[in-house]
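worker-03 picked up job from queue 'complexes'. Input manifest follows; two sequence lines, order preserved.
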Amino acid sequence: MEAPEKGVPLSTKLSKHGQNGVIQPLLTDLYQITMAYAYWKSQKYEDTAVFDLFFRRNPFRGEFTIFAGLEECIKFLEHFHYTTDDIEYLRTILPPTTEEEFFEFLHNLTAKDVIVYAVDEGSVVFPRVPIIRLEGPLPVVQLLETTLLNLVNYASLVATNAARFRLAAGQDKQLLEFGLRRAQGPDGGLSASRYCYIGGFDGTSNVLAGKLFDIPVKGTHAHAFVTSYEKLDDVHERTMTAKDGSKTVDFVSLCEQKLEELSKVLGFPIDQVHMGELAAFVSYARAFPTGFLALLDTYDVMKSGVHNFCAVCLALHDLGYRPVGVRLDSGDLAYLSLLLRERFKKVAEKFNLDWFGKLTIVASNDIDEDTIHSLNQQGHSIDAYGIGTHLVTCKKQPALGCVYKLVEINGLARIKLSQDVEKVTTPGKKVAYRLFGSDGNALLDLMTQSEEEPPKVKERVLCRHPFVESKRAYVIPAYVECLHKLYWKDGQVQQPLPKMKEIKERALASLNKLRPDHKRALNPTPYKVSVSDQLYNFMHDLWLDNAPIGELS
Amino acid sequence: MEAPEKGVPLSTKLSKHGQNGVIQPLLTDLYQITMAYAYWKSQKYEDTAVFDLFFRRNPFRGEFTIFAGLEECIKFLEHFHYTTDDIEYLRTILPPTTEEEFFEFLHNLTAKDVIVYAVDEGSVVFPRVPIIRLEGPLPVVQLLETTLLNLVNYASLVATNAARFRLAAGQDKQLLEFGLRRAQGPDGGLSASRYCYIGGFDGTSNVLAGKLFDIPVKGTHAHAFVTSYEKLDDVHERTMTAKDGSKTVDFVSLCEQKLEELSKVLGFPIDQVHMGELAAFVSYARAFPTGFLALLDTYDVMKSGVHNFCAVCLALHDLGYRPVGVRLDSGDLAYLSLLLRERFKKVAEKFNLDWFGKLTIVASNDIDEDTIHSLNQQGHSIDAYGIGTHLVTCKKQPALGCVYKLVEINGLARIKLSQDVEKVTTPGKKVAYRLFGSDGNALLDLMTQSEEEPPKVKERVLCRHPFVESKRAYVIPAYVECLHKLYWKDGQVQQPLPKMKEIKERALASLNKLRPDHKRALNPTPYKVSVSDQLYNFMHDLWLDNAPIGELS
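worker-03 finished. Artifact:
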């Protein structure tokens, strides 16, 4: 997608990138509509409210989160409108006492009077800091809640999960998302592919996601492909032409010869090699001579799969083609990958084919983040991971608890108290900054009241823990980034919305500015989110004002 | 949806019920397409294959699964077709060596030569038994794999989860799905609402799901609604008319009077009662006089919420309206519900209003299946549960491992061996039956080869454990149900597809025929899935034929 100019409506440009086309405003909880009616009935519809969208804890026992889903949110705002059909349906579920004028009011609603500040999509974000701040007519801003939460929650969760897999695997490995069959239905699968790519994956198996979001699509063959061949005669077309067109040979016979040759050179018995598997590999290589990557574990990896694979590779080489590698989908992945690498190197040496030792090994059996850490500890020779269930379902923690809280109404701050301090909201309209040290790393995030002066470079700023009075420190930032940017005003998009690839790059850059101890898998150091002295005092005064009489709170 | 006549295409009738409209065949893994090309290249495209779709283990450490997603699968088959646009995209991701005729072949593919047998949607199903059996041209049936798995996996998982919540709560409680904000994106939320309803929920908060699938929609108000009111003056419209139209009163003042009256009668201090909360309740009651249900825990349930609620109820009663009840979203739900019930009974007695003691108490704070069992043990007075995150994300086990395995090709059975016995497939085309005892309960499921005679009522049939030779028994069924029905043939739907409500009723009826010990939450008894003697022998002979030489397997 091209970045639109400031103020240019996105409708046409975004339409191709929406998963479902436009997200309907009825995709919400009924209570948003009933509340809107109650506001309307007591003439509170012109009240101006500020809501913060944020989460309280990083997922996966980690200390960071990647924010994703903003483009879909902005698109939702752009198209926010109840159709006549929607209104007709609402008439059937609201009580008959509901006044007709309310339906007219709903029918005329748009998001044009809403002002949205947000953190850039792909940024690393932390608990309590508003990711999106919305300001506008109370009923309208309230009506947006569920849909925005839906669009941000899973997107950010799965992008964060993907980023964690990337941190575990390292930048030099290929990571492929294979989760479509285990996702929450068709669109769950599309969301997964889209946001895993942003979080650091290189590609997906999901063809439609590739088409819609321009993500590289990857895939080879399944066990069923191998078992569908029983013998070499099942390959009905035997010939193959060399890459340079110089010759056409009986490829089936050539592969058989190579297998015999290998058997002699390496000294393995040929009677345990499955001929159906060889037929499948031959057939696959004929179809994809420049992209031959074979699944080795339908029968026995080291007694059958690897022999058939190497035979087909040597035959392809004779015709001028370079094979790609293998995939393992079961067994001891660390051990098997090392055995395979050893074998590939041996073939490389015996046949004087340097590239043979460097063939790609893909692993794909129910891999989670911990598996990758464990493989790294054991030592392995895997080049790429295909990851499905654990990635897309976020099995380790399948929900990010984003919330949407009222923080101001008609210019008056609101605080939501709770016996659980973690659940007390930060009142009023706020702006967040990220303060960086001279080494380029992020030091902390600082929330201020919206009218405060921004913290300045090379000037000390008092940063306070939001709840613990004694926890405070002066910080002198080498660089200050304002996290909140104006994204939506006057019914128009106010920032260029970047391409998926740019969001992906931002996620990587944003993570790179985070100290390694915040990112480590085990017991990471919490990143500090602080408040300004002014916000601290404001918050605690308001807290005291609202404390129930006769109670310590 | 009306049940169509046999053989009538469903396109128009289904369109309204599809979540996304038509599910595109590109919603698949790339390897399905690369395999199709390899089959095409080696002229295997006319081979006839049989695939079984099944799972290996019940989810949630349970011993049953509810099958859901069939209607979406059938609809997908009906519309299965690669558009010109799809083909153009595939051209960009397949290697340039891919032959042009293959794209033509793909472009002309439909599912008309595929025959589908399936278990009825909503039925209880068990591991290893094919839920869907597909027969047809190898590349076509292979191409359907990922999409069918995607459509069945989450649908069945979440329907099963819903059924477990229903078993925990009992039939007399109301269960409401509130999970939209935590689902996997927009369509994940729709799938959740749809299949939770099938699994036993009474309604959803998701308005669009209500509209698309005709599910009852429920909801009241949020904490933000309460905090948006600070004082009684925030209610700009004060009047309210009696139900019978006989009088119009200052409703705000009436509620204030009732609060004072209650304070005197019950003896509680009024200075701890939050007037903003009272304003919110007044406002909500004005909007929904016949559906007044208030969220009590924004401030203090027993010091503020319950007093304001009771005051508004008494005022509504004066005007001839009957309030509905309360919602609790935090705290000790069992304890608070009992306190509330006690209070409601006291008010009922003091004001001689019998219905007051029976007001509905809804609980909704991060509830999972175990919470409900724990509440039952503690004793509580909750009438309805609103359940979100744990239900829709299936946090306890966020994926059902449905697989799609080749079991026959060109009339020859295929077996997939594995060192893990659980992963060995049951070869060949099979039919499954459910055998019932004279008490009406299901005894076991029996798989037979497709050409075998069905088991007969009141005749003994030998049922064997699929792997353990010594485990076998003669069973004399009082009733036999064939689980596999023809659903798709000659490009036409072959069974009436029931309405959602009928599927829901089937799920309940199917579960009711399962012995309680299979359904209990802790250590349920496994339900037996057996094979006929003929299938047992066939399977083990084939296993032996395929065993690697020189190994015990």
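worker-03 released lock.
The longest strand of chain A covers residues 442-449.
Chain A touches chain B through 117 residues (CB under 8 Å).
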